[in-house]
Amino acid sequence: MAGSGSQRPAPARGAPRYRCTECGWATTKWVGRCGECQAWGTVSEIGAPQLREVRPGPVSAPAAAIGDVTIEAAAATPTCIGELDRVLGGGLVEGAVVLVAGEPGVGKSTLLLELGAAGARGGRRVLYVTGEESTAQVRLRADRVGAVADTLFLAAESDLGALLSHLEQVDPALLIVDSVQTLAAAEVDGSAGGITQVREVAGAIIRAAKSRSLPTLLVGHVTKDGSIAGPRVLEHLVDVVVQFEGEPGSRLRLIRSTKNRYGPTDEVGCFTLEADGIREVPDPSGLFVSRGSGVAPGTCLTVALEGRRPLLVEVQALVSESALASPRRATSGLDTSRLSMILAVLDRRAGVRLGRSDVYTATVGGIRLTEPAADLAVALAIAGADRDRCLPAGLVAIGEVGLAGELRPVPGLQQRLAEARRLGATRALIPAEAGDAPATDGLQVTPALDLRSALAAALA
After folding, report:
1. Mutual orientation of helices 375-387 and 451-459 as an angle, nearest 10°?
2. Are residues 198 and 81 in the same domain?
3. CA torsion, ordered 422, 426, 429, 435, to nearest 10 deg
4. For a designed S-S bond to 194, which of 62, 190, 201, 278 qualifies (C-beta 3.0 to 4.6 A apart)?
5. Which domain holds residue 413?
6. Residues 116, 132: Cα–Cα separation, whole Å
Protein backbone atom coordinates (compact mmCIF):
# COMPACT_ATOMS: atom_id res chain seq x y z
CA MET A 1 0.00 0.00 0.00
CA ALA A 2 1.29 3.48 -0.90
CA GLY A 3 2.69 5.34 2.06
CA SER A 4 2.68 2.27 4.28
CA GLY A 5 6.49 2.40 4.54
CA SER A 6 6.31 5.66 6.55
CA GLN A 7 4.02 4.19 9.22
CA ARG A 8 5.62 3.32 12.55
CA PRO A 9 5.57 -0.43 13.21
CA ALA A 10 3.32 -1.51 16.06
CA PRO A 11 5.18 -2.45 19.22
CA ALA A 12 5.64 -6.13 19.91
CA ARG A 13 3.12 -7.77 22.16
CA GLY A 14 4.24 -7.41 25.77
CA ALA A 15 6.77 -4.65 25.00
CA PRO A 16 6.73 -1.59 27.31
CA ARG A 17 4.66 1.25 25.88
CA TYR A 18 4.65 3.68 28.81
CA ARG A 19 7.48 5.10 30.92
CA CYS A 20 7.72 7.21 34.08
CA THR A 21 9.32 10.58 33.38
CA GLU A 22 10.67 10.71 36.93
CA CYS A 23 12.49 7.40 37.39
CA GLY A 24 12.25 5.62 34.01
CA TRP A 25 10.05 2.74 35.17
CA ALA A 26 8.33 1.10 32.15
CA THR A 27 5.04 -0.75 31.81
CA THR A 28 2.87 -2.20 29.08
CA LYS A 29 -0.26 -0.25 30.07
CA TRP A 30 -0.94 3.22 31.37
CA VAL A 31 -1.35 3.71 35.12
CA GLY A 32 -1.94 6.88 37.09
CA ARG A 33 0.77 6.16 39.66
CA CYS A 34 4.30 4.97 38.99
CA GLY A 35 4.95 1.51 40.39
CA GLU A 36 8.57 2.35 41.24
CA CYS A 37 8.78 5.91 42.65
CA GLN A 38 5.04 6.13 43.54
CA ALA A 39 4.70 9.54 41.82
CA TRP A 40 1.29 10.49 40.41
CA GLY A 41 0.74 11.56 36.80
CA THR A 42 4.28 10.85 35.60
CA VAL A 43 3.62 7.81 33.38
CA SER A 44 3.43 8.78 29.69
CA GLU A 45 3.52 6.95 26.39
CA ILE A 46 6.91 6.21 24.93
CA GLY A 47 7.53 8.36 21.87
CA ALA A 48 9.60 7.71 18.77
CA PRO A 49 12.46 5.24 19.16
CA GLN A 50 15.84 6.69 19.99
CA LEU A 51 18.56 6.89 17.38
CA ARG A 52 20.84 3.89 17.38
CA GLU A 53 23.79 5.88 16.08
CA VAL A 54 24.94 9.42 16.87
CA ARG A 55 27.31 11.11 14.47
CA PRO A 56 30.04 13.53 15.61
CA GLY A 57 28.91 17.16 15.54
CA PRO A 58 30.47 20.61 15.89
CA VAL A 59 31.85 21.64 19.28
CA SER A 60 31.09 24.92 21.02
CA ALA A 61 34.70 25.37 22.16
CA PRO A 62 37.84 23.21 21.92
CA ALA A 63 38.84 21.23 24.99
CA ALA A 64 41.45 22.94 27.15
CA ALA A 65 43.77 21.79 29.91
CA ILE A 66 42.17 22.36 33.29
CA GLY A 67 45.09 24.51 34.39
CA ASP A 68 44.48 26.88 31.47
CA VAL A 69 40.81 27.46 32.31
CA THR A 70 40.17 30.87 33.85
CA ILE A 71 37.92 31.12 36.90
CA GLU A 72 36.96 34.79 36.61
CA ALA A 73 33.66 33.86 34.95
CA ALA A 74 32.71 31.76 37.99
CA ALA A 75 33.43 34.50 40.53
CA ALA A 76 30.47 35.31 42.76
CA THR A 77 28.98 38.80 42.91
CA PRO A 78 27.54 39.77 46.35
CA THR A 79 23.77 40.32 46.48
CA CYS A 80 23.95 42.97 49.25
CA ILE A 81 22.08 40.52 51.53
CA GLY A 82 24.74 38.98 53.74
CA GLU A 83 22.76 35.98 55.00
CA LEU A 84 21.81 35.00 51.45
CA ASP A 85 25.41 35.39 50.31
CA ARG A 86 26.46 33.05 53.13
CA VAL A 87 24.16 30.32 51.80
CA LEU A 88 24.99 30.87 48.11
CA GLY A 89 28.73 30.76 48.74
CA GLY A 90 29.54 34.45 48.39
CA GLY A 91 26.84 35.67 46.00
CA LEU A 92 25.46 35.02 42.52
CA VAL A 93 27.64 33.62 39.73
CA GLU A 94 27.12 34.80 36.15
CA GLY A 95 24.81 32.39 34.36
CA ALA A 96 23.88 30.57 37.57
CA VAL A 97 20.25 29.46 37.99
CA VAL A 98 18.99 29.33 41.58
CA LEU A 99 15.77 27.55 42.51
CA VAL A 100 14.14 29.02 45.65
CA ALA A 101 11.50 26.74 47.17
CA GLY A 102 9.28 27.15 50.19
CA GLU A 103 5.74 26.91 51.51
CA PRO A 104 3.16 29.58 50.63
CA GLY A 105 3.43 32.70 52.76
CA VAL A 106 6.93 31.98 54.04
CA GLY A 107 8.31 35.12 52.38
CA LYS A 108 9.97 33.97 49.14
CA SER A 109 8.52 36.71 46.96
CA THR A 110 9.29 39.41 49.52
CA LEU A 111 12.91 38.29 49.87
CA LEU A 112 13.45 38.16 46.10
CA LEU A 113 11.78 41.54 45.60
CA GLU A 114 14.15 43.07 48.15
CA LEU A 115 17.03 41.25 46.44
CA GLY A 116 16.01 42.75 43.10
CA ALA A 117 15.78 46.24 44.60
CA ALA A 118 19.22 45.85 46.19
CA GLY A 119 20.68 44.83 42.84
CA ALA A 120 18.99 47.76 41.10
CA ARG A 121 20.36 50.22 43.65
CA GLY A 122 23.79 48.75 42.94
CA GLY A 123 23.54 49.81 39.30
CA ARG A 124 22.20 46.60 37.75
CA ARG A 125 19.14 46.25 35.52
CA VAL A 126 16.83 43.74 37.17
CA LEU A 127 13.79 42.10 35.57
CA TYR A 128 11.16 40.71 37.95
CA VAL A 129 8.60 38.51 36.13
CA THR A 130 5.53 37.48 38.12
CA GLY A 131 2.96 34.96 36.98
CA GLU A 132 0.91 34.99 40.17
CA GLU A 133 0.28 38.71 40.74
CA SER A 134 -0.28 41.85 38.73
CA THR A 135 2.39 44.52 38.50
CA ALA A 136 0.22 46.79 40.68
CA GLN A 137 0.13 44.17 43.44
CA VAL A 138 3.91 43.79 43.30
CA ARG A 139 4.29 47.58 43.43
CA LEU A 140 2.14 47.74 46.57
CA ARG A 141 4.39 45.20 48.28
CA ALA A 142 7.47 47.05 47.06
CA ASP A 143 6.18 50.27 48.63
CA ARG A 144 5.57 48.47 51.91
CA VAL A 145 9.05 46.93 52.14
CA GLY A 146 10.93 49.83 50.54
CA ALA A 147 11.93 47.97 47.38
CA VAL A 148 11.30 50.63 44.73
CA ALA A 149 14.28 51.32 42.46
CA ASP A 150 14.67 53.00 39.07
CA THR A 151 16.26 50.03 37.26
CA LEU A 152 13.93 47.38 38.71
CA PHE A 153 11.53 46.37 35.93
CA LEU A 154 8.26 44.48 36.53
CA ALA A 155 6.37 42.25 34.09
CA ALA A 156 3.28 40.12 34.71
CA GLU A 157 3.45 37.24 32.24
CA SER A 158 2.38 33.61 32.15
CA ASP A 159 3.68 32.84 28.64
CA LEU A 160 7.25 31.69 28.10
CA GLY A 161 7.55 33.44 24.76
CA ALA A 162 6.57 36.76 26.33
CA LEU A 163 9.20 36.32 29.03
CA LEU A 164 11.90 35.74 26.42
CA SER A 165 10.74 38.88 24.60
CA HIS A 166 11.12 40.87 27.81
CA LEU A 167 14.67 39.57 28.07
CA GLU A 168 15.42 40.98 24.62
CA GLN A 169 13.86 44.37 25.40
CA VAL A 170 15.13 44.97 28.94
CA ASP A 171 18.50 43.16 28.65
CA PRO A 172 18.73 42.69 32.44
CA ALA A 173 21.75 41.78 34.54
CA LEU A 174 19.53 39.78 36.94
CA LEU A 175 16.33 37.83 36.27
CA ILE A 176 13.76 36.82 38.90
CA VAL A 177 10.85 34.54 37.91
CA ASP A 178 7.96 34.08 40.35
CA SER A 179 7.17 31.31 39.78
CA VAL A 180 8.27 28.65 37.30
CA GLN A 181 5.05 26.67 37.84
CA THR A 182 2.90 29.55 36.54
CA LEU A 183 4.58 29.80 33.13
CA ALA A 184 3.57 27.80 30.07
CA ALA A 185 4.90 27.38 26.54
CA ALA A 186 2.29 27.53 23.78
CA GLU A 187 4.13 24.86 21.76
CA VAL A 188 3.98 22.31 24.57
CA ASP A 189 0.90 20.31 25.50
CA GLY A 190 -0.45 20.45 29.02
CA SER A 191 -1.41 23.15 31.46
CA ALA A 192 0.93 25.43 33.40
CA GLY A 193 2.47 23.62 36.36
CA GLY A 194 2.28 20.22 34.70
CA ILE A 195 5.36 18.04 34.54
CA THR A 196 5.93 18.54 30.82
CA GLN A 197 5.40 22.30 30.98
CA VAL A 198 7.64 22.79 34.02
CA ARG A 199 10.43 20.79 32.37
CA GLU A 200 10.27 22.69 29.08
CA VAL A 201 9.83 26.14 30.67
CA ALA A 202 12.71 25.61 33.08
CA GLY A 203 14.90 24.25 30.29
CA ALA A 204 14.23 27.29 28.09
CA ILE A 205 14.94 29.76 30.90
CA ILE A 206 18.15 27.94 31.83
CA ARG A 207 19.35 27.97 28.21
CA ALA A 208 18.68 31.72 28.00
CA ALA A 209 20.48 32.31 31.30
CA LYS A 210 23.55 30.35 30.20
CA SER A 211 23.76 31.99 26.77
CA ARG A 212 23.46 35.49 28.28
CA SER A 213 25.58 34.80 31.41
CA LEU A 214 22.51 36.00 33.27
CA PRO A 215 22.11 35.06 36.97
CA THR A 216 18.55 33.85 37.42
CA LEU A 217 16.38 33.06 40.43
CA LEU A 218 13.34 30.82 40.00
CA VAL A 219 10.64 30.49 42.64
CA GLY A 220 9.37 26.91 42.99
CA HIS A 221 6.23 25.67 44.70
CA VAL A 222 6.34 22.80 47.17
CA THR A 223 3.98 19.87 47.67
CA LYS A 224 2.19 18.93 50.89
CA ASP A 225 5.14 16.82 52.04
CA GLY A 226 7.57 19.73 51.54
CA SER A 227 9.28 18.52 48.35
CA ILE A 228 9.64 20.73 45.28
CA ALA A 229 6.68 20.40 42.93
CA GLY A 230 7.28 19.27 39.37
CA PRO A 231 9.65 16.73 37.87
CA ARG A 232 12.76 15.75 39.79
CA VAL A 233 14.82 16.69 36.77
CA LEU A 234 14.12 20.35 37.63
CA GLU A 235 16.46 20.11 40.61
CA HIS A 236 19.13 18.50 38.42
CA LEU A 237 18.93 21.22 35.77
CA VAL A 238 19.49 24.20 38.07
CA ASP A 239 22.81 25.07 39.70
CA VAL A 240 21.60 25.89 43.21
CA VAL A 241 18.56 24.72 45.19
CA VAL A 242 17.70 26.60 48.38
CA GLN A 243 14.83 25.99 50.79
CA PHE A 244 13.12 28.85 52.61
CA GLU A 245 11.70 27.53 55.88
CA GLY A 246 9.62 28.93 58.71
CA GLU A 247 7.35 27.57 61.41
CA PRO A 248 3.73 28.81 61.43
CA GLY A 249 3.27 31.64 63.90
CA SER A 250 7.01 32.34 64.16
CA ARG A 251 8.89 35.34 62.80
CA LEU A 252 12.02 33.27 62.25
CA ARG A 253 12.90 32.28 58.67
CA LEU A 254 15.79 30.00 57.73
CA ILE A 255 17.22 29.57 54.27
CA ARG A 256 19.50 26.64 53.53
CA SER A 257 20.91 25.12 50.36
CA THR A 258 20.33 21.49 49.43
CA LYS A 259 22.40 21.72 46.25
CA ASN A 260 25.12 24.21 45.37
CA ARG A 261 27.59 23.89 42.53
CA TYR A 262 29.47 27.00 43.64
CA GLY A 263 29.62 26.72 47.41
CA PRO A 264 28.88 24.65 50.52
CA THR A 265 25.57 22.97 51.26
CA ASP A 266 25.87 23.11 55.04
CA GLU A 267 25.35 26.84 55.54
CA VAL A 268 22.17 28.43 56.85
CA GLY A 269 20.94 32.01 56.70
CA CYS A 270 18.67 33.55 59.34
CA PHE A 271 15.96 36.14 58.73
CA THR A 272 12.98 37.54 60.57
CA LEU A 273 9.68 38.36 58.89
CA GLU A 274 8.63 41.86 59.90
CA ALA A 275 5.74 44.10 58.90
CA ASP A 276 8.05 46.08 56.62
CA GLY A 277 9.74 43.09 54.97
CA ILE A 278 12.42 40.47 55.53
CA ARG A 279 15.30 41.40 57.81
CA GLU A 280 18.53 39.42 58.04
CA VAL A 281 19.88 38.39 61.45
CA PRO A 282 23.68 38.11 61.41
CA ASP A 283 23.77 36.99 65.09
CA PRO A 284 20.55 35.04 65.73
CA SER A 285 21.41 33.31 69.04
CA GLY A 286 19.55 35.93 71.08
CA LEU A 287 16.31 35.01 69.32
CA PHE A 288 16.21 31.57 70.94
CA VAL A 289 16.80 32.51 74.58
CA SER A 290 14.13 34.00 76.84
CA ARG A 291 14.80 36.81 79.29
CA GLY A 292 14.01 34.54 82.20
CA SER A 293 16.44 31.83 81.18
CA GLY A 294 17.76 29.96 84.21
CA VAL A 295 15.35 31.66 86.63
CA ALA A 296 12.42 29.24 86.40
CA PRO A 297 12.67 25.47 86.85
CA GLY A 298 12.53 23.44 83.66
CA THR A 299 14.82 25.57 81.47
CA CYS A 300 18.20 24.59 80.07
CA LEU A 301 20.52 26.05 77.45
CA THR A 302 22.23 24.12 74.67
CA VAL A 303 24.16 24.99 71.52
CA ALA A 304 22.78 23.64 68.25
CA LEU A 305 24.58 23.56 64.92
CA GLU A 306 22.55 24.79 61.94
CA GLY A 307 24.89 24.01 59.08
CA ARG A 308 28.19 25.50 60.20
CA ARG A 309 26.57 28.08 62.46
CA PRO A 310 26.34 27.48 66.24
CA LEU A 311 23.16 28.81 67.87
CA LEU A 312 22.50 29.16 71.59
CA VAL A 313 19.02 27.71 72.15
CA GLU A 314 16.87 27.44 75.26
CA VAL A 315 14.84 24.28 75.92
CA GLN A 316 11.84 24.54 78.24
CA ALA A 317 9.90 21.77 79.98
CA LEU A 318 6.83 21.59 82.16
CA VAL A 319 5.86 18.52 84.21
CA SER A 320 2.50 18.31 85.98
CA GLU A 321 0.43 15.58 87.55
CA SER A 322 -1.93 14.08 84.99
CA ALA A 323 -5.64 13.52 85.47
CA LEU A 324 -5.78 11.22 82.44
CA ALA A 325 -5.23 7.49 82.20
CA SER A 326 -2.70 8.14 79.42
CA PRO A 327 -0.56 11.20 80.33
CA ARG A 328 0.03 13.75 77.60
CA ARG A 329 3.34 14.20 75.79
CA ALA A 330 3.40 17.48 73.83
CA THR A 331 6.34 19.01 71.98
CA SER A 332 7.01 22.21 70.05
CA GLY A 333 10.24 22.47 68.12
CA LEU A 334 11.46 19.01 69.23
CA ASP A 335 11.14 15.56 67.72
CA THR A 336 8.32 13.60 69.36
CA SER A 337 9.96 10.19 69.02
CA ARG A 338 13.22 11.56 70.42
CA LEU A 339 11.35 12.95 73.42
CA SER A 340 9.72 9.58 74.09
CA MET A 341 13.15 7.93 74.09
CA ILE A 342 14.57 10.51 76.51
CA LEU A 343 11.61 10.03 78.88
CA ALA A 344 12.14 6.27 78.85
CA VAL A 345 15.86 6.65 79.59
CA LEU A 346 15.13 9.10 82.42
CA ASP A 347 12.73 6.60 83.95
CA ARG A 348 14.85 3.45 83.65
CA ARG A 349 18.42 4.80 83.93
CA ALA A 350 18.14 7.93 86.08
CA GLY A 351 15.19 7.21 88.38
CA VAL A 352 13.03 10.13 87.19
CA ARG A 353 9.51 8.67 87.29
CA LEU A 354 7.21 10.40 84.84
CA GLY A 355 4.74 7.63 84.04
CA ARG A 356 1.82 9.49 85.66
CA SER A 357 2.78 13.02 84.66
CA ASP A 358 1.99 15.22 81.68
CA VAL A 359 5.20 16.41 80.00
CA TYR A 360 5.35 19.49 77.78
CA THR A 361 8.57 20.54 76.03
CA ALA A 362 9.33 23.43 73.69
CA THR A 363 12.10 25.53 72.23
CA VAL A 364 12.21 29.33 72.40
CA GLY A 365 11.93 31.45 69.27
CA GLY A 366 10.36 28.88 66.95
CA ILE A 367 13.56 27.04 66.07
CA ARG A 368 13.32 23.30 65.51
CA LEU A 369 15.95 21.03 67.07
CA THR A 370 16.47 17.70 65.34
CA GLU A 371 20.08 16.83 66.16
CA PRO A 372 20.85 14.46 69.09
CA ALA A 373 23.22 17.04 70.66
CA ALA A 374 20.19 18.59 72.40
CA ASP A 375 19.27 15.36 74.23
CA LEU A 376 21.10 16.24 77.43
CA ALA A 377 19.53 19.70 77.64
CA VAL A 378 16.06 18.24 77.13
CA ALA A 379 16.66 15.65 79.86
CA LEU A 380 17.98 18.25 82.32
CA ALA A 381 15.05 20.59 81.63
CA ILE A 382 12.54 17.77 82.25
CA ALA A 383 14.30 16.62 85.44
CA GLY A 384 14.47 20.19 86.74
CA ALA A 385 10.78 20.72 86.04
CA ASP A 386 9.90 17.44 87.76
CA ARG A 387 11.90 18.33 90.89
CA ASP A 388 10.92 22.03 90.71
CA ARG A 389 14.56 23.09 90.88
CA CYS A 390 16.47 25.60 88.79
CA LEU A 391 19.66 24.71 87.00
CA PRO A 392 22.77 26.78 87.82
CA ALA A 393 22.87 30.14 86.08
CA GLY A 394 25.05 30.15 82.95
CA LEU A 395 24.93 26.35 82.48
CA VAL A 396 25.00 24.90 78.98
CA ALA A 397 24.37 21.18 78.33
CA ILE A 398 25.64 19.50 75.16
CA GLY A 399 25.49 15.76 74.50
CA GLU A 400 23.61 12.84 73.02
CA VAL A 401 21.81 10.41 75.33
CA GLY A 402 22.03 6.69 74.53
CA LEU A 403 19.54 3.98 75.45
CA ALA A 404 21.87 2.70 78.18
CA GLY A 405 21.91 6.17 79.73
CA GLU A 406 25.43 6.93 78.52
CA LEU A 407 26.39 10.31 77.10
CA ARG A 408 27.87 10.27 73.62
CA PRO A 409 30.12 12.92 72.06
CA VAL A 410 28.74 15.22 69.37
CA PRO A 411 30.46 16.87 66.39
CA GLY A 412 31.70 20.45 66.55
CA LEU A 413 32.07 20.49 70.33
CA GLN A 414 34.85 23.10 70.39
CA GLN A 415 32.82 25.40 68.13
CA ARG A 416 29.74 24.99 70.35
CA LEU A 417 31.66 25.75 73.53
CA ALA A 418 33.26 28.84 72.01
CA GLU A 419 29.82 30.17 71.05
CA ALA A 420 28.47 29.45 74.52
CA ARG A 421 31.35 31.35 76.12
CA ARG A 422 30.91 34.28 73.74
CA LEU A 423 27.29 34.63 74.79
CA GLY A 424 28.01 34.59 78.51
CA ALA A 425 27.86 30.94 79.59
CA THR A 426 30.10 30.08 82.54
CA ARG A 427 29.71 26.31 82.86
CA ALA A 428 29.20 23.47 80.39
CA LEU A 429 28.19 19.83 80.83
CA ILE A 430 29.64 17.60 78.10
CA PRO A 431 30.03 13.82 77.58
CA ALA A 432 33.11 12.31 79.18
CA GLU A 433 33.73 10.27 76.02
CA ALA A 434 34.54 13.52 74.20
CA GLY A 435 38.08 13.18 75.57
CA ASP A 436 40.01 16.00 77.16
CA ALA A 437 37.87 19.04 77.80
CA PRO A 438 38.56 21.68 75.14
CA ALA A 439 40.33 24.76 76.48
CA THR A 440 37.89 27.66 76.63
CA ASP A 441 38.86 30.65 78.73
CA GLY A 442 36.30 31.57 81.35
CA LEU A 443 34.15 28.46 80.80
CA GLN A 444 34.19 25.65 83.36
CA VAL A 445 33.76 22.37 81.48
CA THR A 446 32.38 19.41 83.47
CA PRO A 447 32.48 15.97 81.79
CA ALA A 448 29.78 13.45 82.70
CA LEU A 449 29.87 9.74 81.97
CA ASP A 450 26.13 9.07 81.95
CA LEU A 451 22.79 10.77 82.44
CA ARG A 452 22.60 9.99 86.16
CA SER A 453 25.94 11.66 86.86
CA ALA A 454 24.95 14.65 84.68
CA LEU A 455 21.76 15.11 86.73
CA ALA A 456 23.75 14.93 89.94
CA ALA A 457 26.22 17.55 88.70
CA ALA A 458 23.51 19.92 87.46
CA LEU A 459 20.98 19.57 90.27
CA ALA A 460 23.31 19.03 93.22
Report:
1. 50
2. yes
3. 70
4. 190
5. 286-459
6. 17
